Amino acid sequence: MNIQRKYSLPNCTLLLEGLSDMTRTANFQELRPELSILVNAECHLSNYDQPISGGREFFESLVRAVSAYAQEVLSNIPNPQGKKFEHQNSELVELQKIDSNRHRLIVHSEITADNQGGNNNPGQPLQIVLNTVQLFDLVEAVDQFFADSQTLPELSLELHPVHRSYGGSSQILLKQAIPATVGVSSLAVAAVAFSLIPAPQIRPPQVKPEIQSSTSTPTPTASITPTPTTTPTASETPVTKDLEALLKTVPEITDPSQLRVLNRQVYNQIHPAWTNRSELPEDLVYRLGVAADGSIVGYKAVNQKASDAIEKTPLPKLLYNPANRLPNEPIAQFKVVFTQKGVLELSPWLGYAKTPEVTGEKITDTSKIKDLNQKLYSTIRQNWSVTPTFAKDLKYRVAVNKEGVIADYEPLNQVAFDHFRETPLPQMFQSVYGSNVAAPDNKQPLAHFQVVFTPKGELKVNPWKGYK
Hints:
Elements: E1 2-9, E2 12-19, E3 37-45, E4 52-54, H1 56-75, H2 80-86, E5 93-99, E6 102-107, E7 126-131, H3 132-147, H4 171-177, H5 186-194, H6 237-248, H7 256-273, E8 284-291, E9 296-301, H8 304-308, H9 315-318, E10 331-338, E11 344-348, H10 366-383, E12 394-400, E13 406-411, H11 414-418, H12 425-433, E14 447-453, E15 459-463
Antiparallel strand pairs: 1-2, 2-3, 3-4, 5-6, 6-7, 8-9, 8-10, 10-11, 12-13, 12-14, 14-15
Helix pairs in contact: 1-2, 1-3, 1-5
């Protein structure tokens, strides 16, 4: 299974690609599979078009160099470990101080000759000058990696806290560094600046699902228990328990209106990413864990066939890095079906407890709504010139602001999802916001309407009366 992990900061992104060691992984699809075999590592820095990339040796050298250098430059205490790495011929990555706000990142040619577009002389090392903000973002990205227990869990550093006997702590340097790092993780900065906490420690051995005891099965609750199409085997049961244990540790999002919004956000992520919609062995069904901002933080196949065919779906590439999540962040559960016919189906795992409502402040003045109704009809009618190819009515919820400018639109049935490009709605929306994938964060009052496009070319616009 090809797995990606991304650790993103404003000025630096680490992208790791690799595989899961199947000899160490349960057969049933894990909530978030372990990346245990690193194939490629990329470091994307702001203001540089080409990433720095390489294999495992490059990545290990990068994290060693960054951790050692950060301790030295931010504490103003010479780090003997950094000097040791610097003089080792085997080290592919080095960091050197230029001045108080500039740092030189050096990557030797063994890994840059083939993949650095800007390095025309493969005999010379690649040198990149970082400012302090870029350096701190790189440090934070490395810190996020070490906080992620599902990525290269056996990788650790042999660094130790730098003792104050190596030099005096400079308060002047620290005062200079803090303003340059506004927006950077305060924990990471404080940790390396004062050198009072150790560099990343060796992780304790992770208890693998396949060796967990199956003698005490937790009592499932209605909010987390699926109805699988097949009975899991003995080797799959611990993973099911592990997933249920995770869901029991965080609040669950159950508000119907919030679930409706998240349903749209998740659909808008999966639908364009599912590019290969053929050769499915059967309908593939998965349970998704979704954070309050719409990020997909986990998935689980409901049966073995769905687990085996996971690479035929875009789910592995859409997973959000849990290292960036807040503690006890609420999670919503959804059911996603990749059908053999190429149709994507998404709904809350347990459905809606009651009819959802449109969120946000609404325009309620009757005369204003009547005026906006006519204005929206005229705008759509003037821009709808495509001959319909659909056989059923396309139904949408469309919202406009007080000037009649489109602010949001939402398909209400599957045929509306499939044929939205035959309507003028995406063009109208994109002309205002530059994208037709998701609605902008707009706090102004809106008027909502149901818009219907019929196969006969008829257009119907009526005030919104709610979801049915």
